[in-house]
Amino acid sequence: MKDFSKYSAIIIGAGDATGSALTKKFASHGYKVCPVRRPRNIDKLNKLADEINDSGGWAKGFGVDARDEEEIIKLFLEVEETIAPIDVVIFNPGANVFFPIEDTTSRVFKKVWEMAAFAGFLTGREAAKYMKKRNAGSIFFTGATASMRGSAGFSAFSSAKFALRALAQSMARELGPEGIHVSHFIIDGAIDTAFIKENFPDRYALKEKGGILKPDAIADAYWFAHTQDRTAWTHELDLRPFMEKF
After folding, report:
1. Residue 17: which residues within 8 A CB-CB, separation 6 or more?
2. 20 to 30 A from 220, CA-CA: which of 28, 89, 142, 149?
3. pLDDT, tens digit, for every residue of 50-72?
């Protein structure tokens, strides 16, 4: 059985809910986890890393803008050469915004594309460089309902998520034969976060009925995909509460 403690896992977009749950999940199985958020959130990252380290795991946070090519290149090089060989990379930033089409400025459209699609490309490219050396590894991209259909008011977000899904498909077809597992996860529903609680109280009230996604349950699905036998890999997996409409 593979000794996960000899490898590192990079989680881009290690936010307070899903990203943190993913970081803790992979740390609990022995990985040296490297959660990443924008520099302004470094205090939250350090708190997450301290929690993992205090519980017997290994973690180091990185304040990086995933849209910055040089920063991403530097991040991957540092992790690979000073921490452990990179075996898992999860791209999980949030970029969800609502704007009617006539109110969507070029700045908003470009920024959302940079966060959800361009940053995914940079992350996937750098991950592939290191994983191809070992013909092994997992590269996972977090999608959303918007990855499948463009709802009213989400032109920027849907466009970017469609692009990310296409990127994942292309990479899977290119890298799968190299032994690298590329998966795209569609998170179709509200997640148990402070944002949902504060802004969508009616939806959050469904929590008691199991009507919103639990971050820990999402993380379980990512771990399941990562540990699949290569004879039966999943490329796309959609997750939703039992009462969520398709």
Report:
1. 191, 192, 193, 194, 215
2. 149
3. 999 999 999 999 999 999 999 99
Q: Express each pLDDT in 114-141 by its tens digit.
A: 999 999 999 999 999 999 999 999 999 9
Task: Say if residues 235 and 172 touch (Cβ distance below 8 Å).
Answer: yes
Question: Can you tell me whether residue 239 is helix, strand or coil?
Answer: strand
| CB atoms closer than 10 angstroms to residue 1 | 3
Closest C-alpha to 89, from 16, 146, 161, 14: 14
User: Residues 36, 12: contact at Cβ < 8 Å?
Assistant: yes
Tokens at 25, concatenated: 């999940």
- CATH topology for the 4-227 domain: Rossmann fold (3.40.50)
> Where do the domains of the chain lie?
4-227
Q: Helix (H, G, I), strand (E, B), or coil: what is residue 131?
A: helix
